[in-house]
Amino acid sequence: MNKDRLVRICFFALVLFSFFFFTDCSKRTSPSKNIAAEKKPDRVISTEGMGVRILYYENMHRRSMGKIPVQLNSFESSIALQHCKNMAEGRTPFGHNGLELRMNAIERQLGSVSATAENVAYGQLTAKEVVESWMHSSLHKKNIEGNFILTGIGWAKDSHGMIYYTQIFTR
Predict the structure, then answer these.
(1) Collapsing DSSP states into helix, strand and coil, what is residue 40?
(2) N or C: which end of the chain has fewer CB within 10 A?
(3) What's the DSSP call for residue 100?
(4) What ranges in 91-150 are assigned the alpha helix state H?
(5) Which residues have a Cβ under 8 Å from the Cβ of 103 and sit 6 or more positions away?
(6) Of 13, 164, 26, 18, which is closest to residue 97 (Cα–Cα)?
(7) What is the pLDDT of residue 18?
């Protein structure tokens, strides 16, 4: 299967998933439930599907600029997830500590990597808010708009409900 066809298939699958996910959520959520959820301190009720939603918002932005969408890579996502767990459990401080080790692990698994980048965030943020916060930072925005083809996205909650997010980009 050629690369262009694979990209189209992945994009189509993402669009279908997004359509069914957002349609399904809107059918089950009443206005009164939305108001109640907004008043709770932990307003991110579920992180299920968080990676796909972050990818959706970023790829919408990339498409608006005429850039190809980045594809979610499960191995990169597992590396991003581990970094989030390490931050959430206090094994490493919030930030990019250990980035070189994460990139070396990705290169050992995927082969030669010509460029890498990483975005991190924390807070009780929705997927859209995570992307918006990165878009308001010139360095994070540069990564989102960069000449990358693969990405991995992870998130983990600490014992207080704070969510840590990591996104890795490669080419």
Answers:
(1) coil
(2) N
(3) H
(4) 99-110, 127-135, 138-144
(5) 113, 116, 168, 170
(6) 164
(7) 39
Sign of CA dihedral 74, 80, 85, 88: negative
Rounded to an integer, what distance in angstroms lies between the CA atom of residue 153 and that of residue 70?
Answer: 11
Tokens of 166: 């990591």
**Percentage of residues in the chain with pLDDT exceeding 70?**
73
Query: Rounded to two decimals, what is the model's pTM?
Result: 0.73
Instruction: Give pLDDT, residue 129.
Output: 96
Model pLDDT for residues 138-154, shown as the tens digit of each residue: 999 999 999 999 999 99
Question: Token pair 């989030």 is at which residue?
Answer: 84
**Secondary structure of 138-155 as H, E, C letters:** HHHHHHHCCCCCEEEEEE
Instruction: Give the model's confidence band at 32: pLDDT under 50 very low, under 70 low, under 90 confident, else very high.
Output: very low
Separation in Å, CA 66 to CA 56, 146, 147: 15, 12, 12
Phi, psi of 161 (to 5 degrees): 90, 0
Orientation angle between helical segments 3-28 and 50-64, nearest 10 degrees: 120
Angle between helices 99-110 and 74-88 in degrees, nearest 10: 160
In sequence order, what are the residues at sequence separation of 6 or more whose Cβ sits closer than 8 angstroms to the Cβ of residue 89?
Answer: 158
Distance CA 149, CA 146 (A): 9
Residue 56 pLDDT > 90: yes
